[in-house]
Specification:
The chain is an all-alpha fold. The protein has one domain. Helix content is 60%, strand content 0%. It is globular. The two termini are 25 Å apart.
Length: 171
Amino acid sequence: MDTNLLSYQSFLDIMKVIYPVFPLPNNKQFKICIDFIKSESFALPVIEFCEYVHVYKINWLKCSWEYDLMPLEYDTTILPHYIFSTSFLRYYFPTCLNLTIKYFFGDYHKYEIGNIDSFVGYTIGAVIENYKNLNESEKNLLGRILKLMENNSFYDYKDECIKLKNKIMNN
């Protein structure tokens, strides 16, 4: 395996090309998002996340598990489940990918850092469920993330790898 192709920085460089950091979602996108998800029974963590990143103007690249997601009052592990529901949340999809990549590089392996395992699981599930809505660049990135998942030495996500590989091969 070529380690240059699977370095964290190489993933980040690709993501910065695919997902512009600026402009941030605007007020109108924020309001549409809140109106859309407020009737969902389990959406309080997502609403709290949206309000937090909107008020503090946090971009997808700077949004971190330790400083932005974990400290929120509600458990944000379900955020990836909603990430494709509005343009405001879609802007933060690369945050989910970034945290997943860090996870498989072992950034969270030595420490007890909340429910990052669940967050990664929800991210993988959201990707599989919404794969057909991704563009070609995103699909190529996911192929690289799949290789990282398969070759990481920290976690066993064999079932998720099989599901993602099947989705990639059949679409």
